[in-house]
């Protein structure tokens, strides 16, 4: 109920902030108004004219905005008899449109429609032979639009108005750019499907010039290799709402995200209903030098997206979780960045396989307020390989594992701040495995840090395998963090001590390499048990800002400010 009330309020704010309907205009000719279009993620931003020709990068001067009549104001100023129009068409009268056989007939139907009418095209398919411009308030439902090739953005919403699409599908052609460009209008879409697989460039939806687009129901995008991402939100004041959207995107490349915000564009939700579908990944150079972008990435391609952006030297600076994430591949952190869990969990899966869930391979990586969890198919929760990482209030859940530890420090450094919580199970080797096969390995507990362990009573909290060189291992501050050194050189909780010579790590495991391949069987309490390799992953190691969580009132206030309305 809260979601529906919020959505109604947001859409009502969009409606009441608009001037009376504008007349439908014919497609612009050469030299007419220009529209700023978002640039490719790997190139500078380019400006396109409405007919698709590239001009200069200036934002055009469009029809001058007029004062909004008093009766259209939002909030407390809205008259009691003003209907709240939702994405599904609200209280408008439905008008079934007869047979449409051409784009000109479609344009005529749109031009003749009243602001409160809902044009029901009854599932008809209309082929577009030139760019379609909509310059008025209109509601369109049950329509399939197919491009025959327009060499530009297929549909552009410009001038003041609210365009509503309900049960609309759009298919672009090989010469096309973006499917929908929200330029100087508002878009409210419910159950929108866009096939962008053949497009030459662009995105299924671009929102810029301070506009707002709100999506509900099923939002289905099929991306092609030339698609930038799902939705591009470009420019200060430009916003996209996905509060009640069920997002389903098919990606063609690992560098594509569901939503990309840049130059002040944002994605919004209510304070009690945050946008929880995505993880925010900030890249400092994706939009060019000095032009950071925030990509909102789905679970199913998060690890792949991070790996591709690191490989492309896009300079990832932060990763922020807004929900519990289940990975489909190991998450490799291969450059300096901060991962902010915000209290959420990163879990492995069967798709991750017998590898570690998260691996750090670069210095100056910080993990904060996050839980990393293995499944019975995975190895260790966290692997620090020839790198230095800082852990601030981290939980490592290794209760289910194919054989692994909470954390492996392999010729690297782990610096612990705050709480380090380790959860162990029957197949866990121990809490922290310190591996010196490839060089010095260090674990540093900063002042005020504290270690807690659940399960694995017969396992050491920190251990080194017997065939490793203990002189290459440095443990600092363990006693202050609640640990003590056992006779065999391992560390246990201060209140617990394992039997002499049993640090929980076994003996005779053989050397471990960065790939974690180890064919030797471990001997534990006299039993020969074949374990998964203890460090690193397979060779795939080498292959592979936050959302605006404002309230509905924030979105409405932005609209009022942009439209020149009084608070």
The helix content, as a percent range, equals under 10%
Strand percentage? 35-45%
Instruction: Give the CA-CA distance, first to last residue.
Output: 27 Å
Q: Spans with pLDDT under 50 lasting ≥5 residues?
A: 1-6, 13-90, 501-567
Principal-axis shape: elongated
Most strands sheet? 17 strands, mixed
> What Rg is obtained from the alpha carbons, in whole angstroms?
28 Å
Secondary-structure-derived class: mainly beta
Number of beta-strand segments: 37
Number of helices: 4
Structure overview:
By secondary structure, this protein is mainly beta. It has a domain at 326-542. The chain contains four helices and 37 strands. Helix 1 (2-16) runs parallel beside helix 4 (552-563). The protein is elongated.
What topology emerges from the helices and strands here?
Layout: H1 2-16, E1 34-36, E2 47-49, E3 93-96, H2 103-112, E4 117-128, E5 132-134, E6 138-147, E7 155-157, E8 162-171, E9 180-182, E10 186-196, E11 205-208, E12 212-223, E13 231-234, E14 239-250, E15 259-262, E16 266-268, E17 279-283, E18 293-297, H3 302-311, E19 316-321, E20 325-326, E21 331-333, E22 337-347, E23 358-360, E24 365-373, E25 382-385, E26 388-398, E27 404-410, E28 413-424, E29 428-435, E30 441-445, E31 450-454, E32 462-463, E33 473-476, E34 483-485, E35 491-493, E36 522-524, E37 527-529, H4 552-563
Parallel strand pairs: 3-4, 4-6, 5-7, 6-8, 7-9, 8-10, 9-11, 10-12, 11-13, 12-14, 13-15, 14-16, 19-22, 20-22, 21-23, 22-24, 23-25, 24-26, 25-27, 26-28, 27-29, 28-30, 28-31, 29-32, 30-33
Antiparallel strand pairs: 1-2, 15-18, 17-18, 17-19, 34-35, 36-37
Helix pairs in contact: 1-4
């Amino acid at each position: 109920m809260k979601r529906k009330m919020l959505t109604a309020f947001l859409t009502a704010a969009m409606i009441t902030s608009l001037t009376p309907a504008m007349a439908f205009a014919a497609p612009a000719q050469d030299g007419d108004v220009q529209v700023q279009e978002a640039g490719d993620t790997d190139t500078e931003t380019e400006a396109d004219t409405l007919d698709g020709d590239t001009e200069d990068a200036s934002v055009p001067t469009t029809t001058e905005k007029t004062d909004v009549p008093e009766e259209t104001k939002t909030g407390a100023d809205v008259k009691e008899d003003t209907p709240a129009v939702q994405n599904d068409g609200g209280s408008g009268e439905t008008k079934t449109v007869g047979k449409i056989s051409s784009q000109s007939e479609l344009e005529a139907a749109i031009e003749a429609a009243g602001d409160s009418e809902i044009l029901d095209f009854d599932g008809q398919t209309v082929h577009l032979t030139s760019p379609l411009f909509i310059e008025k308030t209109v509601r369109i439902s049950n329509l399939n639009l197919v491009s025959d090739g327009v060499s530009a953005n297929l549909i552009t919403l410009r001038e003041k108005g609210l365009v509503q699409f309900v049960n609309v599908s759009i298919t672009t052609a090989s010469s096309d750019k973006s499917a929908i460009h929200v330029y100087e209008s508002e878009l409210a879409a419910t159950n929108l499907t866009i096939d962008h697989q053949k497009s030459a460039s662009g995105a299924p939806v671009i929102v810029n010039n301070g506009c707002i687009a709100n999506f509900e129901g099923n939002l289905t995008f099929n991306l092609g290799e030339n698609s930038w991402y799902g939705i591009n939100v470009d420019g200060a004041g430009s916003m996209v709402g996905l509060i009640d959207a069920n997002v389903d995107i098919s990606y063609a490349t690992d560098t594509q995200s569901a939503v990309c915000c840049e130059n002040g564009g944002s994605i919004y939700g209510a304070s009690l209903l945050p946008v929880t579908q995505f993880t925010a990944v900030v890249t400092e150079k994706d939009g060019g030098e000095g032009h950071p972008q925030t990509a909102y990435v789905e679970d199913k391609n998060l690890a792949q997206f991070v790996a591709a952006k690191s490989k492309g030297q896009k300079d990832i600076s932060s990763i922020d979780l807004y929900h519990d994430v289940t990975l489909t591949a190991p998450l490799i952190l291969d450059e300096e960045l901060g991962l902010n869990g915000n209290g959420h969990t990163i879990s492995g899966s069967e798709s991750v396989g017998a590898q570690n869930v998260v691996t750090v391979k670069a210095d100056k990586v910080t993990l904060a307020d996050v839980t990393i969890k293995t499944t019975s198919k995975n190895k260790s929760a966290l692997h620090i390989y020839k790198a230095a990482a800082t852990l601030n209030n981290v939980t490592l859940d290794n209760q289910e594992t194919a054989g692994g530890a909470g954390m492996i420090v392999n010729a690297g450094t782990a610096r612990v701040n705050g709480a380090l919580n380790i959860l162990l199970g029957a197949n866990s080797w121990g809490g922290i495995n310190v591996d010196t096969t490839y060089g010095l390995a260090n674990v540093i507990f900063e002042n005020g840090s504290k270690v807690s362990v659940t399960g694995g009573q017969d396992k050491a909290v920190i251990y080194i395998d017997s065939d490793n060189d203990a002189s290459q291992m440095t443990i600092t501050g363990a006693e202050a963090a609640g640990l003590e050194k056992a006779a065999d050189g391992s560390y246990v909780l201060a209140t617990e001590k394992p039997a002499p010579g049993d640090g929980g790590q076994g003996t005779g495991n053989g050397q471990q390499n960065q790939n974690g391949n180890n064919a030797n069987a471990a001997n534990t309490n006299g039993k020969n048990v074949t374990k998964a390799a203890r460090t690193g992953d397979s060779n795939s190691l080498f292959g592979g800002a936050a959302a605006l969580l404002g309230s509905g009132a924030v979105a409405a206030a932005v609209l009022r400010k942009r439209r020149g309305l009084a608070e």
